Amino acid sequence: MERDLIAKIQRLAGVPIRDPSVLVSIGDDCAVVAPSPDCHLIITTDTLVESIHFDLDYFDPWHLGRKTAAVNLSDAGAMGGHPRWAFLNLAVRPGMTDRFWDSFSKGLLSRLSEYGVSLVGGDTVSAPNKLSLSLTLIGEVKKGKWLSRSRAQPDDLIYCSGNLGEAAAGLELLRKYKERRSPFKGRKGTGISRAVLKRLVNRHLDPEPRVTLGQALAANGMVQTAIDVSDGIATDLAHICKNSRVGAEVRAREMPVSRALERTSGILGISSLDLALTGGEDFELLWTVSQKNEPEVRKIAAKILGYRPFRIGKIVQGNRVILKTSQGTKDITYQGYEHYFRHF
Amino acid sequence: MERDLIAKIQRLAGVPIRDPSVLVSIGDDCAVVAPSPDCHLIITTDTLVESIHFDLDYFDPWHLGRKTAAVNLSDAGAMGGHPRWAFLNLAVRPGMTDRFWDSFSKGLLSRLSEYGVSLVGGDTVSAPNKLSLSLTLIGEVKKGKWLSRSRAQPDDLIYCSGNLGEAAAGLELLRKYKERRSPFKGRKGTGISRAVLKRLVNRHLDPEPRVTLGQALAANGMVQTAIDVSDGIATDLAHICKNSRVGAEVRAREMPVSRALERTSGILGISSLDLALTGGEDFELLWTVSQKNEPEVRKIAAKILGYRPFRIGKIVQGNRVILKTSQGTKDITYQGYEHYFRHF
Question: N or C of chain A: less Cβ packing under 10 Å?
Answer without folding.
Answer: N
